[in-house]
Write a sequence for this structure.
């Protein structure tokens, strides 16, 4: 029975699985997004998010604990220098899984797993959504339209009279200069 055995073994031995997840986590940290299967992405998310959380405190101990899991010093320096600064205020959910369809060869579900704060396209979409206002039913009331109408008419008349006034001033100057 499999009671309380929650994580996916991915059809590999324990050593193969941890080596694969360490390599995938290093690639994710360096490249900010990778393409893989959905099962591996879900397992990778469980592997890499605690490491990113640990990178928020830059100490020798936390660097050693992260290096113990990743086994790649370039990925560790990238994680502690750049990524930890960018995700400092985020409480969790550092990765995003975007499903892309099935693979042609074996019909496996494919996806892209990426670090959330490094996708500029998604950041602009969320900023655009923040500007959305609530829609109301009526718009302006008729009384407001009637009150605004004379003001608009007065502005139009003033703008129409302005060129005529300028022309009259110009003619007056010309007549005084001729005398």
């Amino acid at each position: 029975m499999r009671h309380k055995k929650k994580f996916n073994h991915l059809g590999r031995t324990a050593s193969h699985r941890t080596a694969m997840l360490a390599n995938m986590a290093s690639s994710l940290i360096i490249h900010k997004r990778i393409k893989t299967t959905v099962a591996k992405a879900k397992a990778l998310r469980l592997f890499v998010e605690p490491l990113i959380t640990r990178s928020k405190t830059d100490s020798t101990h936390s660097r050693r604990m992260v290096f113990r899991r990743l086994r790649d010093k370039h990925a560790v320096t990238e994680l502690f220098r750049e990524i930890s600064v960018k995700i400092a205020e985020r409480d969790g959910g550092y990765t995003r899984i975007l499903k892309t369809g099935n693979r042609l060869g074996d019909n496996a579900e494919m996806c892209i797993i990426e670090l959330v704060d490094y996708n500029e396209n998604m950041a602009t979409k969320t900023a655009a959504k923040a500007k959305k206002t609530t829609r109301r039913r009526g718009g302006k009331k008729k009384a407001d339209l009637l009150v605004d109408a004379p003001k608009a008419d007065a502005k139009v008349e003033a703008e129409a009279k302005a060129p005529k006034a300028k022309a009259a001033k110009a003619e007056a100057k010309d007549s005084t200069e001729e005398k």
